[in-house]
Batch of 2 targets.
Target 1
Amino acid sequence: MTFRVHVRVVPRAGLLDPQGQAVDHALGALGFTGVKRVRVGRAVELDLAAASKDEAEAHARRMCDRLLANPVTEDYTIQVEED
Amino acid sequence: MLRVAVLRFPGSNRDVDALRAAERAGCEAYFVWHRDTNLQSADVAILPGGFSYGDYLRSGAIARFSPIMQAVQRHAAEGGAVVGICNGFQILCEAGLLPGALVRNARLSFVAKPVDLEIARTDTVFTAAFAGGDKVRIPVAHGDGRFVADRGTLDRLEAEACVVVRYLQAGAGVEPNPNGSDRNIAGICNPAGTVVGLMPHPENAIDPLQGTQDGRGFFTSLAAWQSLAGRR
């Protein structure tokens, strides 16, 4: 089976995120109110062959730990959909 | 003569500068391609500046898996000297050879200018020719130069004297910390002082035409370290 895996990587909470701050300021300048916090990260989309959803998630987790996220500075979340 | 391997990744761009700087300091320097699997009996491996693999994903994240990096890991594990400059520093952190990480500059812009530094530790492969507290002015050129680590790691780096070079605090006539690095850290090393990473570019400060020659001491340190190590 093929699964679509969405990996979201964001700067770890507590770490200064200057991109998030710049976007926050820009949104304020455009008149958008109510924005409490902005973090800017990146999204990685994978089409992944695996026997089950759990296996796909476990596989993606290893990819994140090894390459897709930096454990020192970033947190990640994984969402798996059946294709 | 000290053998210095300068690694070349796709996107390295200070490789020639590093090679010349090592040669001018009296070393026998040569290039090693990232697909090679051995360092050809190098005493020192230099990972030069640039944008290896276009900085895709994160600076240094992909270069660390190059075949030559296995040889660098072995060399470091055997106590061999490894120096990472700018992108090379980023690669060493990604590879886990040095702690922490280098992330986007606090003010987001790419910074290319001379900065003022203090040598904080001198018994390392890249600073052995300096005296503690020496001040140098050499250029930086980076977008992802802000050194960060968790508090425990920072405390350990300080306790084990693993901070090698610091940016000076802002003051009259001083070009200070350009990127917001934690604790003004510009360069660090492993406890033995054999693996060193720094963001500024000493290889671009070795000739009168470059405005400052303060970078020469880093490269004369390579041989100074070797003779120091020989005496031990």
Note: Chain A has a mean pLDDT of 95.
Target 2
Amino acid sequence: MPARHSDKELNELIYRVIVPKGLRPTTPEDIDAMLDAIGGSAPSEESVQRMLRKIRGEVPIGTGSVAEGLGDRLAVADDANISEEALALYRNRNDDIPPEIKEKLKDMEERAMEEGEEADQGDTDA
Amino acid sequence: MAKMTTTDAEAHEDIALRLLCGDELVLEDILRRPGYAPAIQKALCKKYEGYLTEEDVEEIVADAIKKLWDYRESYDESKGSLRSLLYSIADNCAKDVQKQGWYKARQKEIVIEPNEDGDDPLEQLAQYDRYLSQRSCDDVDLDGGSSKLGSAVHKVLNTLRPEFKYILEADAHAGDDGISQAELARRLGVPVGTAKVWRSRARDEFRKGMKALGYDL
């Protein structure tokens, strides 16, 4: 039986599958060929000036936020789980709602209100 | 492969010469000229799609150009073109940002001069890919998942929970041992302990799925 691949090897296997070979150049010549093939469109003047300020050290680099991944979607999932809990409680109205669930429901209502207002505001701005 | 024209070669030489002479105006040329910053940005956006934003990539390329400028005296033409060096610096920076987030990536200094192992960034990049291509299970073409093994990997990844798929792909993009626990937790919006457990479960479920398709990883 072959030895189990390490986690590092697993990462490498997935990397080779999800990143096309054309985007994995291995030599300077390969890189040149890839960059020639891609070319790229002329950046906006605003973008050039913004990058120049960063290169010259007038503006700090790396203040942007890296992609947040699934954070927002997971937050929605958490809310969904809490809603299930709340729903289960409402199904049996004879039981008292525990204070912590009441608190969560209140939080969710407030957040929903705020998000609704922000969305309305966004629609207005657009 | 497109053959480089004399004009192209002269333009590349001109840019390299001006950089070495410390002509600051060359920075704008690097930013504007197709095949330089615009191509590098586009390549990195495509490569890290879904894992780094366009804004991140713009910062990464600006950072790489700054490093190239700061260490321009170390540039050795015999090791490759200036833009291939710029790309490799940017790609390494992208991996660092992917792995540890901006805060820690900012603290890393670039080493253009050969390190104690005699490696330079381009050579490190080439070694990494050679290493990948020599792995036992890579004796088939995995490009884009078109091979049998590649298709199996895609298939299993697509059956996983979105957060598990995200973890495995983010680890793959980060290289080496993957993204740091703290950065992973930040991106997923969960505590570090949860991120650790999810990563372990993601790997287990991936291995289980691959085993069901006949691949014992």
Note: The CA atoms of residues 7 and 13 of chain A lie 10 Å apart.
